[in-house]
Specification:
Elements lengths: L1 H4 L20 E3 L5 E3 H6 L3 E2 L4 E2 L4 H8 L5 E4 L17 H12 L5 E8 L2 E8 L10 H17 L3 E7 L7 H20 L4 E9 L1 H4 L8 E4 L10 H8 L10 H6 L5 E2 L5 H12 L1
Helix pairs in contact: 5-6
Length: 279
């Protein structure tokens, strides 16, 4: 595996993500503003005055969106297997177990159904803290089953994406999830059930190339990084400097790939209004 690890040059591929939500009493924004975490939580994890959107996970999104934080989780115990017996700097099963213990999640997506402002809804939300929000077989299967639940109950489906792309430890099996989830969304469309896709920071790789961009409405949080390949890869491929703000949500909106950008503090009311219009 020396070709993968590049041990001769000391290069390893990082797969562990930094903690998203601040775990101390105080949070310091990128511009240096100090905010108490209680105030941050009460402000939907958006830094007051700066409007900086702190990265959050499924736990926080469910608290924000589901009425009284009441919901029924779907497929809560589903875990990844190791079909390829994959080993990089450590065996894949060991990496899974360590990630589960570290962030208290089974995999990189959680799905649940409940009510949002009185409207029945199914929500699937990705967690970047679990191996960079990478899309593996479990992620694809849980999203597919959540879509099945939406079709069965005629309930709108909301997908909250935050991902580094396909999970390299599952290779082609990971890439297959792009086709599977896209096919499920086609069935959702045939059933005339609304699908809203929320892209958050960052949404990249195979996730962007599949379910994240297939919504009836594709929306995003401010200043989110949205793209397929990273800026460095694109720059080296085309041999040109990229425009300022390239791959920001605002840039993507300006070029017609998003319907609108929504502040997280207004997310629940905006989604509820949109779904009532569609109904």
């Amino acid at each position: 595996m020396a070709w993968f690890k590049r041990t001769d040059k000391g290069i390893l591929t990082p797969t562990e993500a930094k903690r998203e939500v601040p775990d101390g009493l105080w949070f310091k924004s990128p511009e240096g503003k100090i905010v108490h975490t209680r105030e941050l939580k009460n402000n939907a994890y958006v830094v007051p005055e700066e409007d900086y959107h702190v990265r959050i996970g499924s736990k926080e999104y469910f608290e924000i969106l589901f009425d009284n934080n009441e919901f029924k989780e779907l497929d809560a115990d589903m875990e990844s297997a190791d079909p390829l017996n994959f080993v990089d700097s450590k065996p894949y099963p060991k990496r899974i177990k360590e990630s589960q213990a570290k962030v208290n999640l089974k995999d990189a997506v959680r799905s649940a159904y409940g009510k949002m402002d009185g409207i029945k809804i199914v929500i699937a939300c990705m967690d970047f803290s679990f191996i960079g929000g990478s899309m593996g077989s479990v992620v694809g299967e849980k999203i597919s089953r959540a879509i099945d639940h939406s079709i069965k109950t005629k309930t709108p489906f909301l997908m909250i994406s935050r991902s580094g792309g396909a999970r390299m430890m599952e290779a082609g099996l990971s890439l297959m999830q792009m086709a599977k989830t896209s096919a499920k969304l086609a069935l959702l469309d045939q059933a005339k059930v609304p699908y809203i896709s929320l892209l958050t920071d960052p949404t990249t790789g195979g996730v962007t190339a599949s379910y994240a961009m297939l919504g009836d409405f594709n929306i995003a949080e401010p200043n989110s990084l949205i793209g397929f390949a990273g800026p460095r890869v694109i720059r080296e491929t085309i041999g040109k400097d990229l425009p300022k703000g390239f791959q920001s949500a605002e840039f993507v909106l300006e070029h017609g790939f998003l319907d609108f950008i929504v502040d997280r503090r207004n997310l629940k009311s905006k989604l509820a209004t949109l779904l009532r219009m569609l109904a």
